[in-house]
Amino acid sequence: MRARTCLSALALLLTTAASAQTIRAQPPGRQATALPRIAAPHGRPALFVDGAPFLVLGAQANNSSNHASVLPQVWQTVEQLGANTLEMPVA
Asked: Where is the signal peptide (predicted)?
C-alpha cells in the first residue's frame, strides 16, 4: 500500500513538473500538446502523457549525484536500467 501511495505522489509530482514545462508559447502553425494528467478511465488511476498511458520506470539519484562531474555516470546508470524518469535532488 505504501508503494502505491508513493507512486501516486510521484505521478502527481511529475504531472505538475511536466505541466510547468509544457505551458509555453507555441510557434505559429504548431498545436500545443495536451498537458499530462491523471485519469481513471477504467476505474484505476493512470498517468497520461501525450494522450496515452505512461508507465513510470523510475530511478533515484543520491544526494551527491547532482554535481556536474557525476552526471555522466548517473545518465549511464539510468540508461542501463531502462528508466524513463529520474528523481534527483536539486541543490
From this structure: 1-20
- pLDDT of residue 51 exceeding 70, the answer is yes
**What distance separates the 2 farthest-apart alpha carbons in the chain?**
46
Closest CA to 17 of 61, 47, 57, 59: 47
CA dist., res. 63 & res. 86, Å (int): 13
Q: What is the model's pTM?
A: 0.53
Q: Does residue 60 carry a pLDDT above 50?
A: yes
Q: Residue 90 carries which side chain, given as an amino acid letter?
A: V
Here the cell at position 78 is 539510468
The three cell numbers of residue 77 are 546508470
